[in-house]
């Protein structure tokens, strides 16, 4: 099969012919019909993920058709159109038994723990636990951006943040995760403040539902500006980028008893950010992580998409070919794209 491969972290990314995959007894092989390009893939190529073994095929947001089924799989068959959350649970550990597959003790992640979806075919483990059948109403390009940024944002806003109508929600960083969170919070009738460093991106944030915007590169004090716009601070605030500055600001701009949700990956020099712990204590703030979403929670999200309350396809800037990844992936740190890129040609 054709696949995108890198053999060295931060090294050349090439299109190669590699051996077709085979499923484990509990897994499937999926013929990929569309796959999203995510900044997590860039982090992997940079060497920020200890699970990756070289040579490696990245890619973790996908939709496709089941092409081969392991002998122990009961709920899926060849020809089923499916997607999958980027964190796949084992189904047997204590976390999975509690319903928290997104923090499974033995989790697998396509594009990280094993070869991913920047290829014609991909293997997915523990299919009966992790695969999600897609309704006909949801197109491949839409489904291809759900598995990481959109489901992570959905869980962050809905399940972790428990956002309600009328609340002020601040979103720090308007990449794919941040824009998804803006759309979801807006669908819940929250008042959304979008914070970014790019005016064009902030225009897109406004189009997706942000009621106010802050350009952090032009603001003398992001925290105070957000507090002024929210009449005392946000009820819920997300760091959707993952940096020292955005994490601190997201905590610091909360009102009393507010919730900070850490969604953006904290890597490299940003792993251990400064936190205004005095404010956390005095104002009874909550600091909560959000890491993917369980497959069984997809139904609520998919229903909102079918009803038109959520329109993730609006996040797509353009579609590209598999070969284009060799150029687009290493440049993701330049933030030249306002929306999401989706591969739909293999």
Automatic annotation (TrEMBL):
Keyword Coiled coil: no
Pfam families, per database record: ADH_N (PF08240), ADH_zinc_N (PF00107)
InterPro entries on file: ADH-like_C, ADH-like_N, ADH_Zn_CS, ER, GroES-like_sf, NAD(P)-bd_dom_sf, Zn_alcohol_dh
Entries under PROSITE patterns matching the protein: ADH_ZINC
GO MF terms, alphabetically ordered: oxidoreductase activity, acting on the CH-OH group of donors, NAD or NADP as acceptor; zinc ion binding
Protein keywords: Metal-binding, Oxidoreductase, Zinc
Domain Enoyl reductase (ER) stretches: 11-343
Obligatory cofactor(s): Zn(2+)
Family (UniProt): Belongs to the zinc-containing alcohol dehydrogenase family.
Name used for this protein in its record: Alcohol dehydrogenase
């Amino acid at each position: 099969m054709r696949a995108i491969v890198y053999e060295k972290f931060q090294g050349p990314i090439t299109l190669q012919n590699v051996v077709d995959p085979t499923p484990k007894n509990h897994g499937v092989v999926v013929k990929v019909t569309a796959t999203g390009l995510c900044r997590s893939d860039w982090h992997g190529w940079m060497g920020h993920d200890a699970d990756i073994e070289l040579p490696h095929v990245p890619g973790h947001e996908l939709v496709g058709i089941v092409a081969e089924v392991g002998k122990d799989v009961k709920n899926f068959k060849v020809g089923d159109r499916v997607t999958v959350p980027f964190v796949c649970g084992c189904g047997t550990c204590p976390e999975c038994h509690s319903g928290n597959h997104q923090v499974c003790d033995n989790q697998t992640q396509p594009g990280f723990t094993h070869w991913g979806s920047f290829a014609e075919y991909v293997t997915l483990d523990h299919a009966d636990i992790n695969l999600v059948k897609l309704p006909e109403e949801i197109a491949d390009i839409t489904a291809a951006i759900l598995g990481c940024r959109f489901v992570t944002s959905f869980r962050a806003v809905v399940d972790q943040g428990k956002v309600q109508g009328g609340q002020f929600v601040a979103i720090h960083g308007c990449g794919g995760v941040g824009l998804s969170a803006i759309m979801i919070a807006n669908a819940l009738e929250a008042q959304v403040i979008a914070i970014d460093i790019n005016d064009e991106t902030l225009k897109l944030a406004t189009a997706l539902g942000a009621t106010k915007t802050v350009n952090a590169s032009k603001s003398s004090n992001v925290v105070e500006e957000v507090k002024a716009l929210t009449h005392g601070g946000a009820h819920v605030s997300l760091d959707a980028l993952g940096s020292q500055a955005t994490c601190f600001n997201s905590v610091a701009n909360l009102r009393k008893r507010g919730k900070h949700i850490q969604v953006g990956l904290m890597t490299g020099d940003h792993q251990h950010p400064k936190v205004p712990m005095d404010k956390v204590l005095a104002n009874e703030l909550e600091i909560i992580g959000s890491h993917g979403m369980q497959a069984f929670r997809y139904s609520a999200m998919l229903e909102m998409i079918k009803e038109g309350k959520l329109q993730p396809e609006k996040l797509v800037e353009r579609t590209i070919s598999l070969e284009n990844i060799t150029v687009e992936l290493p440049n993701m740190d330049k933030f030249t794209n306002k929306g999401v890129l989706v591969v739909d040609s293999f």
